[in-house]
């Protein structure tokens, strides 16, 4: 039986970052991953390929939808979908190969197989050749991630009814794409295909898009996407799907009950969320039990069983690659005997639509529910010089600060480069900064970042440019 200091089950953002950090700290570590490539959902069929298509589709729309003409650039582009998919795949391959290099650099062993717990401190790995390899370690990290949540009555075949993986590799542009679920994945992938020429309809069970997002920001995003041509059927449920050679017929009705109507599409994307990947892990061999959703509980990343740790999508918190990475680093630091903490209050979230949405900290709705008195500062990108000159003035920056102490409690951005801009406020909140701290800092002109300062100034009622 092979002995290690740390065994990590799963090679996604949580697993591979945990393995690299363990290697840096001099621990004997192995990462168990049975897929052909490292990187998990994020690198292979999630974050990275979707961003490749988002970027390409934005450029295509700019060239075809009038923006280039406005700028005085006249072209007649032709969509080469096969090449668009090829460059996406090449980018993904380069990234996954990069992780293999980092494993070698940090003396991490990649065991190519599917791991399961086999009692305290033990892991059995089913290898590709059918053999089983037995391993043991003082500490075991479960980082198996998540998978798309199925929808009863709508069977995913990745031919006509797709999950997020299937929607990243369509061989043609759908005439009508129906997206079931108005969350991050559905809106991002729906945006890609709308820009490439699809008629896109989003069906959502709730009466709003992006549950958990700041209400005002969510309403602004929906209004913007609607203006771009995306249709929404909110407070609507899908009860059945009938597949034919040429497409799909969905049975939809009001979520509160009512008459059933049919919705025709040539492709359907099911994007109602993700669920933890915990089946077949041998949890019973050590006495671990999941909740109804398949999630494992953790206390400061420790399970109830000594020596077994839990990080990423398989446990509580937002299912975000950077949250998994943060937990991975802290988990390994603790295993190595170091002091480390995850500040969940400063983990940002980003929706990569156009405009982008980025948030960190509390929403107005959460602060009201807590009974906490707060002030609001807001600044529109339409008043920001750089955004205006680039014809991207839609959206705003909103800063929420404690009414008494002025400590920044939450920030919500919808607008250009929101995902990049939010980082400044993540740093500010990590240091418990006040809105006045940001308002007093000189920002370069002309940049979109000036909107961050102006929003902070607005908390004090002294925004100068709007």
TrEMBL record:
Coiled coil: none annotated. Pfam families: Pyr_redox_2, Pyr_redox_dim. Residues 4-328 form the FAD/NAD(P)-binding domain. The keyword Chaperone does not apply. It is an enzyme of class 1 (oxidoreductase). Residues 347-456 form the Pyridine nucleotide-disulphide oxidoreductase dimerisation domain. Its cofactor is FAD. InterPro entries: Class-I_Pyr_Nuc-Dis_Oxidored, FAD/NAD-bd_sf, FAD/NAD-binding_dom, FAD/NAD-linked_Rdtase_dimer_sf, Lipoamide_DH, Pyr_nuc-diS_OxRdtase, Pyr_nucl-diS_OxRdtase_dimer, Pyr_OxRdtase_I_AS. Keywords: Cytoplasm, Disulfide bond, FAD, Flavoprotein, NAD, Oxidoreductase, Redox-active center. Its EC number is 1.8.1.4. The keyword Chaperone does not apply. Belongs to the class-I pyridine nucleotide-disulfide oxidoreductase family. The active site is a redox-active disulfide bond. Homodimer. This is Dihydrolipoyl dehydrogenase.
């Amino acid at each position: 039986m092979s002995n290690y200091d740390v065994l990590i089950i799963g090679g996604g953002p949580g697993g591979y970052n945990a393995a690299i950090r363990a290697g840096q700290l001099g621990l004997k570590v192995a990462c168990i991953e049975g897929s052909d490539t490292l990187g998990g959902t994020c690198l292979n069929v999630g974050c990275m390929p979707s961003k490749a298509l988002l970027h390409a589709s934005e450029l295509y729309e700019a060239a075809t939808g009038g923006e280039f003409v406005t700028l005085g650039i006249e072209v007649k582009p032709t969509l080469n979908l096969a090449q668009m998919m090829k460059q996406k795949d090449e980018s993904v391959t380069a990234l996954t190969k990069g992780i293999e290099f980092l494993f070698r650099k940090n003396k991490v062993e990649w065991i190519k197989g599917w791991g399961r717990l086999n009692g305290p401190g033990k892991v059995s790995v089913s290898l590709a050749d059918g053999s089983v390899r037995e391993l043991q370690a003082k500490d075991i990290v479960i980082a198996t991630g998540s998978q798309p949540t199925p929808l009863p009555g709508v069977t995913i075949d990745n031919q006509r009814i797709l999950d997020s993986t299937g929607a990243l590799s369509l061989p043609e542009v759908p005439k009508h794409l129906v997206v079931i679920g108005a969350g991050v994945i559905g809106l991002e992938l729906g945006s890609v295909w709308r820009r490439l020429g699809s008629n896109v309809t989003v069906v959502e069970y709730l009466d709003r898009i992006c549950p958990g997002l700041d209400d005002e920001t969510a309403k602004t995003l929906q209004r913007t996407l609607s203006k771009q041509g995306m249709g929404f059927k909110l407070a609507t449920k899908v009860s059945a799907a009938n597949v034919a050679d040429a497409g799909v017929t969905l049975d939809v009705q009001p979520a509160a009950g009512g008459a059933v109507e049919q919705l025709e599409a040539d492709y359907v994307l099911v994007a109602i969320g993700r669920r933890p990947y915990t089946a077949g892990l041998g949890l019973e061999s050590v006495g671990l039990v999941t909740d109804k959703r398949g999630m494992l509980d953790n206390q400061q990343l420790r399970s109830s069983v000594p020596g077994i740790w839990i990080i990423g999508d398989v446990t509580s918190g937002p299912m975000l690659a950077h949250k998994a990475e943060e937990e991975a680093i802290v988990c390994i630091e603790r295993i190595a005997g170091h002091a480390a903490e995850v500040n969940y209050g400063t983990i940002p979230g980003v929706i990569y639509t156009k405009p982008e949405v980025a948030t960190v900290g509390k929403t107005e709705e959460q602060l009201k529910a807590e009974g906490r008195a707060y002030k609001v500062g807001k600044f529109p990108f339409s008043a920001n010089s750089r955004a205006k000159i680039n014809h991207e003035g839609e959206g705003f920056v909103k800063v929420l600060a404690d009414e008494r102490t002025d400590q920044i409690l939450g920030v919500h951005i919808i607008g250009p480069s929101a995902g990049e801009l939010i980082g400044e406020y993540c740093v500010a909140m990590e240091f418990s900064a006040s809105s006045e701290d940001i308002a007093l800092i000189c920002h370069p002109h002309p940049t979109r970042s000036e909107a961050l300062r102006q929003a902070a100034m607005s908390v004090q009622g002294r925004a100068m440019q709007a």
